[in-house]
Amino acid sequence: MDDMTAEIELPESLRRLWSRGAPAKERRTSLSLDRIVSAAIEIADTEGLSALSMARLADRLGSAPMSLYRHVASKEELYDFMIDAAAGELGAAVTNDWRAGLTAWLTDLMAIYRRHPWILQLPLTRPPLEPGQLDWLERGLLIQQATPLTNAEKMGIVLTLMEYARGHAAIANSLEGADASFGLPLPYGQLLARLVDEGRYPMLTAAVDAGVFEPPSADPETDLQEDFQFGLNLILDGLAALIRSKA
Is CATH 3.40.50.970 what the domain over 9-86 is classified as, yes or no? Predict the structure, then answer.
């Protein structure tokens, strides 16, 4: 670390994340940052991000709300700790097979977005700086290490895949628990059939006629997985073409 970097004043949450060692063994009843973060994630997972408040969190932990502030300064700081803990669940192994490696890595990321949908509700106020998120970023770059891509191209691939996963997970999370009509008076495909005409919307009309907007099958999760894999293959096929052009 050079002198200029050493002088940079990090936000308190980042300073604490980077200065933390291994969690100390504590009694289950002890109030600690790890217990606070775990309980906050449980609430957000099961009840939604809107249900997470410092008062609700204190009640879950059986402590006074003010006791939490000895460990975390604000809800915004708590979010930093929660994201770092969730990112730490990524475990895709690094492999010289870039396609298999990136597929496993992105599948891991998708699983986290589905398991913790509240992550996608938090605003992206800055690039990732938490150690857990940087560990994930490092793995994505290491998987591409044996390719002839430049460092900028490798980072571009990571960001492209990240945005694809976030977008697909946001759609999947919004569909979860919704019925086939999405609260509409008719299924979406039937409504489109009434609204579009071939003169103005020839392509949409053809898609409706082909059954593209029919309700999902009896197993919506399988449909979502197939859609995800289709888009991922398109991205990775493009990456394969780029790699071949440089080989």
Answer: no
Q: What's domain 92-180+216-246's architecture?
A: Orthogonal Bundle (1.10)
Ranges 138-142, 176-180, 227-231, 239-243: which has the least confidence: 176-180
- Each as own residue / partner, the long-range contacts of residues 72-78 (CB below 8 Å, 24 or more positions apart, any chain) are 72/33, 72/36, 73/12, 73/13, 76/13, 77/11, 77/12, 77/13, 78/36, 78/37, 78/40
User: In this structure, what are the phi and psi dihedrals at residue 245, rounded to the nearest 5 degrees?
Assistant: -70, -20
Model pLDDT, residue 217: 62
pTM score, whole prediction? 0.79
The candidate with the shortest Cα–Cα distance to 42, out of 25, 23, 60, is: 60
Please tell me what DSSP assigns to residue 49: G
Domain spans in the chain, listed from the N-terminal domain onward:
9-86, 92-180+216-246
Q: What is the pLDDT, as a whole number, of residue 25?
A: 52
Q: Is 63 helix (H, G, I), strand (E, B) or coil?
A: coil
Whether residue 39 is predicted with pLDDT greater than 60 in this model: the reply is yes
For the chain, count helices (H), then strands (E).
12, 0
Note whether 99 and 236 are within 8 A (CB). yes
d(CA 99, CA 88): 22
pLDDT at 28 over 60: no
Please name the residues in contact with 25: beta carbons below 8 A apart, sequence gap of 6 or more: none
